[in-house]
Hints:
Blueprint lengths: L1 H25 L8 H27 L7 H22 L14 H5 L5 H24 L8 H23 L1 H4 L1 H25 L3 H13 L9 H13 L11 H7 L4 H12 L3 H19 L5 H7 L5 H12 L3 H6 L5
Amino acid sequence: xxxxxxxxxxxxxxxxxxxxxxxxxxxxxxxxxxxxxxxxxxxxxxxxxxxxxxxxxxxxxxxxxxxxxxxxxxxxxxxxxxxxxxxxxxxxxxxxxxxxxxxxxxxxxxxxxxxxxxxxxxxxxxxxxxxxxxxxxxxxxxxxxxxxxxxxxxxxxxxxxxxxxxxxxxxxxxxxxxxxxxxxxxxxxxxxxxxxxxxxxxxxxxxxxxxxxxxxxxxxxxxxxxxxxxxxxxxxxxxxxxxxxxxxxxxxxxxxxxxxxxxxxxxxxxxxxxxxxxxxxxxxxxxxxxxxxxxxxxxxxxxxxxxxxxxxxxxxxxxxxxxxxxxxxxxxxxxxx
Length: 337
């Protein structure tokens, strides 16, 4: 009964990883991406797919994967690819240095270590990167609107990693087959978590990136007429209602205000206490509430489209995020004419 479930998780993760890779490379335009970050994303995806295919091979033939060169390589390369991808999402403006090549050291060391040690080293290094990521996110807590959500999300990943690490340490007593099954299941569950979070909170990468930039970058507003720019922003939002433009981006609004994207992002965060995506979502939801209060006939989809949302799911997610209820529930509370 267990093996069919593992096979199902492997199949799901392989397909899910492919979808996530395509979505990140070609459709997540609101996230600042660099070539090195996209390369790290592709490498991480291909490595995880490769590991899952190796796990499938073990289930079908009983192959001893830990004594396999390709498996050991992928096992040790995953933490480095994870670090490089996470670093690029959070700190894309920080250049890579020569010392960053040290992150590839475990991959080279795998060729000289006993199989059991390769697995232990891989997960210990991965745990170290998880601690680094958690500290980075914790340092952004003042700038992240859903800080508890992000920490809960990372906490689930940490629990999964700790469980697999415990099995790695217990390899001499539990045996490799249990480790292969547990690791395959962990990858499958992790992919399911990522997909679930992106469906519930599509803007998570954008918000985390903005929060990281604001938390760790120097001020870009020196010499800027802050009050004048705030007045211009207020005019563009209240008079022109630019937020109703579905294609409005940080870069487009910054250009309209004669600011750089970084300056506008810092201006909004420092004065309103939210990231740019959250700021726009709140304005769009406020507009939607006004329409829902006076118009009982228009569908929720049409209201969302009028306010700048690209889809019904994005409208519902943002409305619930800001108000704590659905558009339909809000409309029912409004007095009828």
